[in-house]
Amino acid sequence: MGSIELKNGRYSRVFNQLEELMAKSDDQLARMATVAAILHHKMDGFFWTGFYFLRDKKLVVGPYQGPVACQELEYGKGVCWASVLRERTVVVENVHEFPGHIACDARSKSEIVVPVRQKNGEIIAVLDVDSAKYGNFDYTDAEWLGKITGLLALPPSS
Ligand code: SME
Q1: How far does residue 130's CA lie from ligand 1's centre (Å)?
Q2: What's the pLDDT tens digit per position in 5-31?
């Protein structure tokens, strides 16, 4: 079996597990903590896995697993802000080549950032995953992590 099939199989099992776990609580913070913990411990090469909340012109750290991270990310700088401002998933094969990349931990080498949207489409946070390996993330990760962040969506009034 090729590495894409292995990754797809792993994500598929993780997705099913998360779907069951999400049904147990509609508290978004609890869901985010669960997503970060499951992804971090079940996926290969996930060195830092967590969320940043969008608060006015700040990105503020939320539930995460991995080494201690920056608490706030300066407006407009780095991969997380690029994802928010472009309103899409950003995959970075080599963080050292990304202008303005914010290195919370010098061991990070590649990164993926996926917007977290409420049901009305509003971006409320991002899911950020760093790897200590170059090129750890690709279209397969973008697709599955997009589906997984979709499990977090609540109606805007919740
Ligand atoms: N590298 C991110 C900052 C967050 S840490 O990776 C946990 C960025 O450039 O936005």
Answers
A1: 8
A2: 999 999 999 999 999 999 999 999 999
Q: Rounded CA gap, 109 and 51, in Å?
A: 18
pTM for the model stands at 0.96
- Is 29 strand, coil or helix? helix
Nearest CA to ligand 1 atom 1: 102
Q: 110: helix, coil or strand?
A: strand
List the domain boundaries for the chain: 3-150
Assess whether the C-beta atom of 102 lies below 6 angstroms from ligand 1.
Answer: yes
At the fourth CATH level, the homologous superfamily of domain 3-150 is GAF domain (3.30.450.40)
Distance separating alpha carbons of residues 138 and 140, to the nearest angstrom: 5
